[in-house]
């Protein structure tokens, strides 16, 4: 069973940076596509970014493209989300997710809170 644990959230001023980490366990990490999603108060959960196992296989939501960078370290079984130039509208709970091949995202972490003050 895949387990995901997020860390790295916190409070930051607008324009600042944070790096989120997602520790993966329970299966072979390099076979999984890893994604980051977020949910702001009163809003539905939305896609942020994802990274596949092929080099350069990344996708971003338009709202974060150019500011956020997703990466993975297969040796450490960890995915990352580097968030720069943060805006108050980036405030949300950020969730890590994993999927195998073309399946939907089957596995989810509990989330980490990111709060950006203006």
Plain-language structure description:
- The protein is 0% helix and 53% strand.
- It is mainly β and 118 residues long.
- The strands form 2 sheets. Strands 2, 4, 5, 6, 9, 10 and 11 form a 7-stranded mixed β-sheet that branches.
- It is globular, with a radius of gyration of 13 Å.
- The mean pLDDT is 96.
Order of helices and strands: EEEEEEEEEEE
Distance between the termini: 40 Å
Structural class: mainly beta
Largest sheet: 7 strands, mixed
Low-confidence stretches: none
Q: Mean pLDDT, nearest integer?
A: 96
| Shape, principal axes of CA atoms | globular
Fraction of residues in β-strands = over 45%
Q: What is the number of helices? A: 0
Q: Using the CA coordinates, give the radius of gyration.
A: 13 Å
Helix content: under 10%
Quaternary structure type: single chain
Question: What are the main properties of this structure?
Answer:
single chain; 118 residues; mainly beta; seven-stranded mixed β-sheet; four-stranded antiparallel β-sheet; 11 strands; 0% helix
Write a brief caption for the model.
The protein has strands at residues 3-7, 10-13, 18-25, 32-39, 46-51, 58-60, 68-73, 78-83, 92-100, 107-108, 112-117. By secondary structure, it is mainly β.
Set down the secondary structure blueprint.
Elements: E1 3-7, E2 10-13, E3 18-25, E4 32-39, E5 46-51, E6 58-60, E7 68-73, E8 78-83, E9 92-100, E10 107-108, E11 112-117
Parallel strand pairs: 2-11
Antiparallel strand pairs: 1-3, 3-8, 4-5, 4-9, 5-6, 7-8, 9-10, 9-11
């Amino acid at each position: 069973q895949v387990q995901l644990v997020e860390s790295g959230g916190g409070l930051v001023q607008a324009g600042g940076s944070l790096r989120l980490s997602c520790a993966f366990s329970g299966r072979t990490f390099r076979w999984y596509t890893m994604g980051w999603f977020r949910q702001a108060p009163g809003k539905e959960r939305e896609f942020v970014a994802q990274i596949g196992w092929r080099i350069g296989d990344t996708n971003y939501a338009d709202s974060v493209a150019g500011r956020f960078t997703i990466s993975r370290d297969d040796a450490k079984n960890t995915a990352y989300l580097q968030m720069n130039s943060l805006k108050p509208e980036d405030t949300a709970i950020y969730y890590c997710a994993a999927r195998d091949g073309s399946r939907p995202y089957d596995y989810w972490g509990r989330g980490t809170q990111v709060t950006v003050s203006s």
